[in-house]
Amino acid sequence: MRLALLGCGTVGSEVVRLLHEQAADLAARIGAPLEIAGIAVRRLGRDRGDLPVDPALFTTDALGLIKRDDVDVVVEVVGGIEPARGWLVEALRAGKSVVTANKALLAEDGAALHDAAAEGGGDLYYEASVAGAIPLLRPLRESLHGDRINRVTGIVNGTTNFILSAMDATGAGFAEALEEATELGYAEADPTADVEGFDAAAKAAILASLAFHTRVGAADVHREGITEVTAADVASAKAMGCTIKLLCIAARGADAAGRETVSVRVHPAMIPLGHPLASVGDAFNAVFVEAEAAGPLMFYGRGAGGAPTASAVLGDVVAVSRNRLAGVRSASESAYADLPVRPMGEALTRYHISLDVADRPGVLAAVAGVFARHDVSIATVRQGPAGGGAAGRGEDADLVIVTHVAPDAALAATVRELRGLDIVRSVASVLRVEGGL
Ligand code: NDP
Ligand code: HSE
Asked: Measured from the CB, is residue 11 less than 6 Å from ligand 1?
């Protein structure tokens, strides 16, 4: 079985190392030896340390490598939309099997890859694209195909989980925690894709597509990052027995006419400490799947890093290689349900809202009136002196309100109106609450 490896960076170099170290076992598991036919990179002269591979295998001509007749499987660990899309479409149309870790491409234009795979008859596997080493897509794509998945809630970005965990543990602000993440090598030099939620949104699209048999793309995902989360938000969450996580949430629902829909969103949210995802710290990932018959399922592990991600890539390589030897291909993407994606405004959420209000008669009633006007039910109210001083003194009070479930648009309209009231000095923080309180 001959592989074309596209990319030999953090993940690709570990794929090479594992292919070398486990050559005998892999050959026994597949029923044929795995050989690297070539490795496409950008810079031929780059120092690749003591990588156990013949330097003559490196090339900058990725397309030429893909087109070679002696290549059976193409492994893409370059990333980005182009030229990866063109390469993989070419490979799949030519009947080769493809293994990729490229979540950005799958979320942007998964349809082009799935269509090309169907045309060429090869396999398209992408376990490493979501939650790194965690076996998650195969369970969604195969093991749970006899069940009905209602909701997927996940921590799928290690960098932001590291930052939020550090803020929670030390009381640091976002900038300070990001600096630490960068120093320790968790955050990239340009952390935008992680901290602004783009990476998690791409993964959310892939998860939702598999869970609900519906094509969901990056553009269908409501996305908010963690840059606005403050130390005060984290402290407020702690006071409520909660922690803040960047969650990806994909859920079934129904629109006003009762038609089945899905909603897919990525945003920071407070979750109670007792929630299965609350204890997921450091740069770990975890995904909580709720299925009709199976009930709750939890997947946990390393979501990034060269070796963990290469583990998932190689698992796919073994699977597609076995298929090729057997002359079969796995069931392709299942998008038969074709459910509409609901706008974020219709998603059902709860809010935690911290207000600095004037401390005088009638203020609580006025604030409660705003919620009532937007048909948002209040679950709990906590009032204390502004800034935490002695009770009853000062002209302002801190008011913390947690709502019951309501459409996101109603909650957003409530906050907008609160911001416009004289008696509301400031809306200190607005966070969604997930997982019950
Ligand atoms: P790196 O940036 O470390 O490596 C990218 C590789 O692609 C390099 O070898 C680079 O060549 C090569 N490359 C870049 N552009 C071209 C080009 N035009 N032609 C040929 N080769 C090119 O990326 P990672 O290994 O971190 O990530 C690879 C993929 O895996 C991405 O899709 C990423 O999202 C995904 N992924 C990564 C994880 C991680 O922890 N790193 C986790 C999960 C998924 P050169 O070596 O010459 O620079
Ligand atoms: N940047 C990603 C993360 C890498 O922090 O989780 C894994 O996809």
From this structure: yes
The string of pLDDT tens digits covering residues 355-402 is 999 999 999 999 999 999 999 999 999 998 776 655 454 689 999 999
Q: Is 238 a catalytic residue?
A: no
Q: Whose CA is nearest to atom 7 of ligand 2?
A: 304
**Residue whose C-alpha is closest to residue 75's, from 36, 33, 121:** 36
Q: Indicate the pTM of the whole model.
A: 0.95
Rounded to whole angstroms, how far apart are CA atoms 409 and 347?
8
Strands 424-433 and 260-272: parallel
Pick the CATH number of 2-136+306-326 from 3.50.50.60, 1.10.3730.10, 3.40.50.720, 1.10.10.10: 3.40.50.720
**pLDDT tens per residue across span 112-126:** 999 999 999 999 999
Q: Which of 1, 407, 416 is nearest to 222 (CA)?
A: 407
Of 103, 203, 238, 245, which is the active-site residue? 203
CATH, range 140-302: 3.30.360.10
pLDDT of the residue at 389: 53
C-alpha of residue 298 to centroid of ligand 2, in Å = 19
